[in-house]
Design brief:
Blueprint lengths: L12 H10 L3 E5 L3 H10 L3 E4 L3 H4 L11 H14 L4 E5 L9 H15 L3 E3 L7 H9 L4 E6 L5 H4 L9 H17 L3 E5 L3 H10 L4 E4 L7 E4 L1 H4 L17 H17 L11
Parallel strand pairs: 1-2, 1-8, 2-3, 3-4, 4-5, 5-6, 6-7, 7-8
Helix pairs in contact: 2-4, 4-5, 5-6, 8-9
């Protein structure tokens, strides 16, 4: 039996909080275009993140830093058009909120107005508090991001696991409480020890979504191209590949080339 559009219950921040409260894990994947977002949404994903990882997987950049606010709005608009159920979060890109709360608010409002997305995500803790509070005061939902923060890659100098040392772990926990107190509806925890992920998820009442943060957080997120095996060179420990689309696409294209060259395509049934 097909489900009528009017019967589809959209995911909201309230529902995400209820999922944490009852112990139901939250599923989250990245999306950057209409076609893939439509498939992921229809499959039942809870949250779609229009990540600044588009800089890597869509544009081929080495880091997330080059992607612009205009680029993010373009990708977000494409994803929102495809979605009927999932909650859509958009990364505010590097340089569009750090150090200037007025610019941060302007960036968030542009994303919400021009793309129709449901929330924004920002990297950092106490250092971006003013920007977070200003955006929240305008009624825009904000998700935080702690641990490995890719926009700060040149500060860290490495993509290694964060918060192994006691001082950094204490700072992360403090920042998580701060973001909760500010009014953030959730936080992404990236590449931190599993025990720390568990501690944060237990101490902080809002949902914690992990990427390399162990099994005890409230949900998981992966980059869609990574988990579907479209990208091959990226192989961190936290990544589980659920398909090998690189091989499948390569085979399909090879078969197409062969059929064109041999004049097998198009056949009599494939012409007018």
């Amino acid at each position: 039996m097909s489900i009528h559009k009017a019967d589809i219950k959209k995911v909201t921040t309230h529902q995400l909080q209820e999922m944490k409260n009852r112990g139901e894990k939250i599923s989250m994947l990245t999306a950057y275009d209409y076609s893939m977002a439509r498939i992921l949404d229809a499959a039942g994903i809870d949250v779609l993140l229009v990540g600044d990882s588009a800089s890597n997987v869509m544009a081929g950049n080495e880091t997330t830093l080059p992607i612009t606010l205009d680029h993010m709005i373009y990708h977000a608009t494409s994803v929102v058009r495809a979605v009927e159920r999932a909650f859509v979060i958009v990364d505010i890109p590097f340089g569009s909120y750090q150090g200037d709360s007025t610019e941060a608010l302007r960036s968030a409002i542009r994303i919400m107005k021009e793309s129709g997305a449901h929330a924004v995500k920002m990297e950092g803790g106490s250092e971006i508090r003013e920007s977070v509070e200003r955006i929240l005061s305008a009624g825009v939902p904000v998700m935080g991001h702690l641990g490995l923060t890719p926009q700060s890659i040149y500060k860290f100098g490495t993509y290694t696991v964060r918060a192994r040392e006691e001082a950094e772990a204490a700072k992360l926990l403090e920042d998580a409480h701060l973001l909760e107190e500010c009014g953030c509806f959730g936080i992404v925890l990236e590449k931190i020890p599993a025990e720390l992920g568990k501690k944060v998820a237990e101490e902080v009442s809002i949902p914690m979504i992990g990427i390399g943060a162990g099994p005890h957080v409230d949900g998981q997120v992966l980059v869609m191209q990574d988990m579907l095996g479209i990208t091959k060179e990226f192989q961190p420990r936290f990544l589980r590949r659920y398909a090998d689309l690189d091989a499948m696409i390569t085979d399909a294209v090879g078969n197409y080339i062969r059929d064109v060259k041999s004049k097998d395509f198009p056949n009599e049934n494939e012409q007018y």
